[in-house]
Amino acid sequence: MAVSRSLESERKYDVDDRIAVPPLARFGEVHPEETVILRAVYFDTERRDLARRLITLRRRAGGGDEGWHIKLPARLGRVELHAPLADEPPAELLTHVAGVLRGRPLREVARLSTSRTVTRVHGDDGEPLFEVADDLVSATDVGTGILRIWREWEVELLSGAPEGGKKRAALLDAVQRELETAGAEPASSASKLARALGRSSLTDLPPVAAAGRDSSALEIARALIAAQLDALVAADPGARTDETDGVHALRTAIRRVRAVLAALRGVLDASAVDPVRDALGEVGRALGRARDAEVRRARLTALLGAEAEAVGDELAELGPALIGEALDEYRTAYEAVTEVLDSPRWFDALDALDDLVARPPLGENALEPGRPLVREQLLRAARRAEKRWKKADDDASRHAARKAARRTRYLAEALTSDAAPLFGGKVRALGEAAEALQDALGEHRDASALAARLGTSDAPGHLRALADSENDAARAALREAKRAAKRFREAGAALD
């Protein structure tokens, strides 16, 4: 079953029964449409997991886009996912919120009947600019049985609206002035579901404030974990649906949160933090096996394309088999990914992260000034990475140096992020230098691993030629790692 995706840019307004939609001819050609009846049922878990993340799930009958809809928050509006009408929510749709639902059952939370009259405005080129939906809504809170009735106008930009956030906002502002002149007021509630349930907002949880330079260690911990958890939940659907780089994105998000948790062991009780890191590590290893096969396939594809002319027809015949072998390895590893992402291990880890934010278990350093504490953690991470690099003389020790550089990078990026803008240019420079060292050592590892697979003693000559090419790439990467290590050392010294 196909799931479609669109970006909604809309605003809502409260209106009473005495006013009419104003003339909109100054914006373009006006096309009034006939009134339709929309009947919607909204669903959530007992804990209101969807609403707490400002997500709605509904089944709607009637109108031109009837079906199942999920609406997700986005920077410039809301993302809407749509699937055809069916009795039950399609699995292909629910997979996009599996990391939020975490195996918990859905239940009806509200039933809405809406009488909608749409006025659509087209631009000079004939394309639809926006529409104003005049909605009379009757909503029943399933939990309490309370019936609420209201009227609202909903303005939504359409395909002919200008591109770019500023231009789209300007158009919405201009329409808003017309509607307010007619008597409309900005809506008192963020969504129809919130209003049906008698709330001003979908979520009942206060937002976690960004940490500042004067924040306690606990405040910094909550801000960082909340941001990292948001990144995990956002990356979960891409890995489940095998989107391009979806596995890699979720694996990276897991590594970031593990790096942050490691730095916070003295701030939060280690007995609560360590099991979460272990569980995330287990999921990360499953993702890593799939990612390794994915990288190997990509390297083989690029290598065969670059070297095919030099090694001749034999390689051209063997190449698809080599790529197919890597693809088979990926498919096998990806099956394990799908299993672990639907496992209690993963869902429990996400729940535990929620608890660390909502009810953080205090460690001995929780109430200390946070900035000096996390700065020292960052310096320790940098010193550890430099020490491991100095001892890196084989593949295993270089991999250990790479992991230490990666942890330093992720911690530096977390401490200069919007969630915790605690430091400035020097810490950003350390993060960038750590990333360069991580990338160079990663290139060395990937090239060396593929060379070892291709260059066995009994391999045909044309495969050994490919192995030689990968060994050349590994040596070049090691030279780059030495240069990156020098920059990393200098960036760390600038912080001491």
UniProtKB/TrEMBL annotation:
<dbReference type="Pfam" id="PF01928">
    <property type="entry name" value="CYTH"/>
</dbReference>
<dbReference type="InterPro" id="IPR007899">
    <property type="entry name" value="CHAD_dom"/>
</dbReference>
<feature type="domain" description="CHAD">
    <location>
        <begin position="214"/>
        <end position="496"/>
    </location>
</feature>
<feature type="coiled-coil region">
    <location>
        <begin position="464"/>
        <end position="491"/>
    </location>
</feature>
<keyword id="KW-0175">Coiled coil</keyword>
<dbReference type="InterPro" id="IPR033469">
    <property type="entry name" value="CYTH-like_dom_sf"/>
</dbReference>
<protein>
    <submittedName>
        <fullName>CHAD domain-containing protein</fullName>
    </submittedName>
</protein>
<dbReference type="Pfam" id="PF05235">
    <property type="entry name" value="CHAD"/>
</dbReference>
<dbReference type="InterPro" id="IPR038186">
    <property type="entry name" value="CHAD_dom_sf"/>
</dbReference>
<feature type="domain" description="CYTH">
    <location>
        <begin position="6"/>
        <end position="200"/>
    </location>
</feature>
<dbReference type="InterPro" id="IPR023577">
    <property type="entry name" value="CYTH_domain"/>
</dbReference>
